[in-house]
Amino acid sequence: MPKNKSHKGTIKRIRISKTGKVRHVTAGRGLFRQRKTAKRLRQLRTDRYMRGPDAKRYEKLLFRRLRGRYQPRSAIRRSPSPEAKAAMRAEKAKSE
After folding, report:
1. Cα end-to-end span (Å), the chain
2. Whole-number pLDDT of residue 9
3. pLDDT digit string (tens) for 21-57?
4. 54 close to 62: Cβ distance less than 8 angstroms
């Protein structure tokens, strides 16, 4: 079976922080800033991190778990270590 390839265009447009949040550049900030009001430019500066539903879409493109802006770190479930897996199996076998 072929390997999953992450979307190269997406990788170029976003950055993923160490905590798994997705940073992006706000649309509309590139050109013609002199036309835009100060209020509009201030609003474009804020909110560099994606929210949960948007981050979820990027997970499918990147084949990686990500965090949205309002999600806690515990929202990303990590796979248990081999030692933790063995302990869970032993506990399950003991209870049966």
Report:
1. 37
2. 93
3. 899 888 888 888 899 999 998 888 887 899 889 999 9
4. no
Q: What is the dihedral of CA 40, 42, 44, 48, to 10 degrees?
A: -160
Paired residues of 16 in beta bridges? 22
Does the pLDDT of residue 8 top 90, yes or no? yes
Q: What share of the chain is helix, strand, coil (3-state, %, to 5)?
A: 45, 10, 45
Residue 45: count other Cβ atoms within 10 Å of its Cβ.
9
Note whether 6 and 63 are within 8 A (CB).
yes
CA distances from 50 to 17, 22, 30, 84 (A): 11, 6, 19, 32
Q: What is the mean pLDDT of residues 68-88?
A: 85
Report the residue count for the chain.
96
